[in-house]
Amino acid sequence: xxxxxxxxxxxxxxxxxxxxxxxxxxxENTLSDISKLFNISVSMVxxxxxYWDISWSKEEISARKKYNSSKYDHQKSNLxxxxxxxxxxxxxxxxxxxxxxxxxxxxxxxxxxxxxYKETCKSKYGTPYYSQTDKxxxxxxxxxxxxxxxxxxxxxxxxxxELKNRIIQAxxxxxxxxxxxxxxxxxxxxxIFHLDNGDNIIHSKFIKPFKYIYNSVEHSYFPDFxxxxxxxxxxxxxxxxxxxxxxxxxxxxxxxxxxxKQECMIANNVxxxxxxxxxxxxxxxxxxxGPDFLKNCKLK
Length: 300
Fold this sequence. Notes:
Elements: H1 8-14, H2 17-25, H3 31-38, H4 42-51, H5 58-70, H6 74-89, H7 95-98, H8 100-103, H9 107-125, H10 134-152, H11 161-169, E1 175-177, E2 180-182, H12 185-196, E3 201-203, E4 210-214, E5 217-221, E6 225-227, E7 230-235, H13 255-267, E8 271-274, H14 279-289, H15 293-296
Parallel strand pairs: 7-8
Antiparallel strand pairs: 1-2, 3-6, 4-5, 6-7
Helix pairs in contact: 3-4, 12-14
């Protein structure tokens, strides 16, 4: 049925407020659905909602997002897109054909970019990375705590029993690939790159932990990987201070524990790699698997 242009007065005469609000509250109804139901334009749906002061709460918006997301199989859609690209263009990412200089992995180019970035940061902040400055660390920690307090009423999500149990049940990470869990997308990218290139890489799940003592208590430390016989630990810059020492950016009272863990790493010849050291693996994943692959491996 054709939707005629209506004035607000005409729409008010046509549409019953109670029926409109019931339809507006149903999470499965989009604005377009409501428009078709009452034979009015989408813009008029918005005007009526504003006129009657009907709006979605934060909880309703969240529920609508979850509902709409659940209607689609994003992983299946992504795999289909990658398969189509491979059949049509011979690559998962056609942009590598149109823009080979931008999407091909060039170590020298990346090294030059990183060195330029480090020099700029050193001249501005006295450190090669802005994330190593106290301003960044304190701001990040305060922002994290503020978000946690607003969401959960505590300064860290691990203080919420339900969330803590969910993380424990998920294994040791929030990314899942080939029956293994990974703590970050960087670790997952690193693992896939070396697996695809025929390297002997072993996940932490299969590594015997090292033991160390802190404050008279024994702790277990699991390196992230063993790569061709070398123990590997991957850390973001937020976990390192200006001197390269491990810290706990979420609770500096635990910096001593982090330092004891690092001494254990040094004693057992564990190589510490930062995100910059493994950027090549991220570039590889985007090129070979597509830009959404890592996102689709994240646990819901």
